[in-house]
Specification:
- It is a single chain.
- The chain is of the alpha/beta class and 342 residues long.
- It has twelve helices and 15 strands.
- The strands form three sheets. Strands 12-11-10-13-14-15 form a six-stranded parallel sheet, with helices on both faces.
């Protein structure tokens, strides 16, 4: 589950600690068009306060109304379905033909949620299994190969914690925005920079700082298909060897920031290493989609937008993307120059 849904669980813990009744709704299946995917969560407090979402708003409104008037007196987990008919789909704000199935459970065991959140904060992946007959919850270690949600109408298992990893090479200003935004997108972020003048000032909460040489860090991380690497130092001594190792790995995305000219020079340098043409073709550079980005936050958005498209298998318009990449690269060159002059 992503960071948005983890915040739902954090709100549930806080409300339970204040003595409120809390109902948790989890989407377990959708048919047709649906605003939110399976696994999305909504917590509803006894007085109607909500955290998270499962639809465009009308399903939430129905749950709030039923909880406030106590017509939804859930004592153990149950299954609720919305939008079976066209009229119901319209009533609950679902697109025509949409259907949404939820597991609704009363949250009484604050301890298991606190333990889950503590383990996620330690960058662990945790599987939470709910028994619908008893309401009992069990936690176990999970892996990135596990399905994010499994539901057989008797048990609901959801996987929590960062299912994706991002290695950022370089701990400069752009990297700070990139790391912060990436964590909101369900990435466990590692930043590598052996340069003291950059590493000593790194302060992005939740990220891991590595001071070793980037290529050694790439190898030590054992990058898999849930991993991405972005190099932003503009220093071949730091970027090139790390990119070489990353391109040989199973990482779903490998990119390096720089102008079009610098990116071409980088590719020429990388041809001197033991890389196949297919591996070289995996390198994204310059990086960033066409959003007219100039400032470090905007460049971070453009990079993460491209990563998100690749992660979801979306075909990119490379002509339009390339224009954006050059704009992002030029903007970053200006940022780097300003930092150097300062």
């Amino acid at each position: 589950m992503d960071s948005v849904d983890l915040q739902v669980l954090r709100s549930s813990v806080a409300w339970l600690g204040e003595g409120h009744r809390v109902i948790l709704a989890t989407i377990v299946e959708t048919w047709g068009s649906s605003p939110r995917p399976a696994g999305a969560m909504l917590a509803v407090r006894g007085d109607g306060l909500v955290a998270g979402s499962v639809s465009g708003g009308c399903v939430e409104d129905d749950l709030i109304f039923r909880i406030r008037n106590k017509s939804l007196a859930v004592e153990k987990p149950e299954i609720a379905t919305y939008g079976i008919s066209k009229d119901e789909a319209t009533r609950y704000g679902l697109p025509c033909g949409g259907k949404l199935e939820l597991v609704i459970e009363p949250i009484r065991d604050n301890i298991s949620i606190i333990e889950l959140l503590d383990r996620v904060d330690r960058h662990e992946l945790v599987a939470r299994t709910l028994d619908l007959d008893t309401g009992m919850v069990a936690l176990r270690p999970a892996s990135r190969a596990d399905a994010p949600l499994i539901f057989d109408r008797k048990r609901l298992t959801t996987v929590h914690g960062p299912r994706w990893r991002l290695l950022i090479i370089g701990a400069g200003q752009l990297s700070q925005y990139l790391a912060q935004m990436a964590q909101a997108l369900d990435y466990s972020v590692t930043v590598c920079d052996p340069r003291e003048e950059y590493a000593d000032t790194w302060n992005v909460e939740g990220s891991v700082l590595e001071r070793g040489m980037p290529d050694d860090v790439v190898l030590a991380m054992g990058l898999d298909s849930h991993s991405a690497v972005v190099a932003v130092t503009h220093d071949p001594k730091l970027d090139d060897l790390a990119l070489m190792e990353a391109l040989k790995s199973a990482a779903f995305y490998v990119g390096a920031l720089g102008s079009r000219l610098n990116s071409q020079k980088r590719r020429e340098r990388l041809t001197m290493f033991d890389l196949s043409q297919g591996e070289l073709d995996r390198l994204h550079g310059p990086i960033g989609l066409s959003i007219g980005s100039k400032t470090p936050p905007e460049i971070a958005v453009s990079i993460l937008a491209e990563m998100t498209a690749v992660r979801h298998g979306v075909e990119l318009n490379r002509v339009g993307a390339r224009r954006g990449e050059e704009a992002a690269a030029d903007g970053n060159q200006q940022v780097c120059a300003a930092v150097t002059q300062a």
